[in-house]
């Protein structure tokens, strides 16, 4: 296990004070803080390598290109992809999901065809499919969850019909922390001849991911949730699928040859990367992945799971506090409401104590509806959080309760 005290020194923002109190940052599912090495990688690239990639014969351009392509190989290794051709750089999970909805929709879906989602999807994995519904008349089917926030696999299987074309499911719920059995879902879907898209926004930052072991056909994640910079994300897609799908956007970089009559497209992965890529972001993302692997993803998981269990225990003992998401396989998120206190008031008052939590619908309004609430308070953990911070949260909630 790594030393929390040492690790926290890598993240300068964690020693900030908010309203004169030490910052307790528990909004990591929204975005993580950045270690020095990542910010330094950005600075290093802008100060000493910066040049546009893939185009120049000159030294800097070639060096920047090498860093960008090295980063692609680093991502492939991080998630167990067979080849860097299966790694598409995007702006983040949202863009990756939109890319699949657009390109898969174009190539493989027509009116009446169905996509299977779950009740616990983030809006990013709902709205692009609704847009496809509006454009092409596809149908969205939704697999339900139980009261503990566990996906009903039998109900999911019953949703398969002759018109099913894709299953798109989050790996970990950003509200409930439920870890969905994506291996089993993939085996089930493949038995029906159907590909699977896994939204890995909340899994990739927390435990080892191997797309080959999962067997999924697509996987998405965001750099900023895994200690990397904002504005860069990843779409993993099996080469066989990516080869079949049309480009998402047109422009420079993604073409092989252009005339006014006809354009031919580049090979993978460039076919899906129109325009100048975020080559600084990719290099910094690679640095973040190195940071995570240096600490060890198994250690990170063990630490975060311990914090989550501890938080469930501590918060669960507070009278009037209702926890949401009690799956056995639960990752680093704890969502709750306290009787008689509006979630927004609770979040605002905790902020006054220096405690940063998320409040509201968490971009998962259908899930809020499932639990009959308008919003929840959410604390989410990262590799640098401590038990003392969980104590601060519990004491903060008690303090707010006494005010009401
Ligand atoms: N899916 C899930 C499960 C998420 O938690 C998030 C971010 N909250 C997203 C998708 C969207 O990620 P981004 O905003 O980085 O595109």
List keywords for this structure.
2 domains, binds 4'-deoxy-4'-aminopyridoxal-5'-phosphate, 404 residues, seven-stranded mixed beta sheet, 40% helix, Aspartate Aminotransferase, domain 2, four-stranded antiparallel beta sheet, Aspartate Aminotransferase, domain 1
Average predicted confidence as pLDDT: 97
In the predicted model, the low-confidence regions spanning at least 5 consecutive residues are none
* Percentage of residues in strands: 15-25%
What is the CATH class of the largest domain? Answer: Alpha Beta
Number of domains: 2
User: Which strand order does the major sheet show?
Assistant: 4-10-9-8-7-5-6
Radius of gyration: 22 Å
Named at the architecture level, the CATH assignment of the largest domain is: 3-Layer(aba) Sandwich
CATH T-level fold name of the largest domain = Aspartate Aminotransferase, domain 2
Mind explaining what this structure looks like?
The protein is α/β, with parallel strands linked by helices and 404 residues long. It folds into 2 domains: 4-27 and 296-401, Alpha-Beta Complex (Aspartate Aminotransferase, domain 1); 40-293, Type I PLP-dependent aspartate aminotransferase-like (Major domain) (Aspartate Aminotransferase, domain 2, 3-Layer(aba) Sandwich), CATH 3.40.640. It has helices spanning 4-9, 36-48, 59-79, 93-108, 127-136, 153-158, 182-191, 211-214, 239-244, 279-295, 297-316, 343-352, 365-370, 387-403; strands at 17-18, 21-22, 24-25, 87-90, 114-118, 139-143, 164-170, 196-199, 218-222, 233-237, 255-258, 263-265, 321-324, 333-338, 355-356, 358-360, 376-380. The strands form 5 sheets. The protein has a 7-stranded mixed sheet, with helices on both faces. Strand 11 and strand 12 (263-265) form a beta hairpin. Helix 2 packs antiparallel against helix 10 and helix 3 (59-79) crosses helix 10. It is globular and about 70 Å long. The two termini are 41 Å apart. The structure holds 4'-deoxy-4'-aminopyridoxal-5'-phosphate. Residues 29, 92-94, 122, 124, 170, 174, 199, 201-202, 222, 363 line the site of 4'-deoxy-4'-aminopyridoxal-5'-phosphate (PMP). 4'-deoxy-4'-aminopyridoxal-5'-phosphate binds at residues 29, 92-94, 122, 124, 170, 174, 199, 201-202, 222, 363.
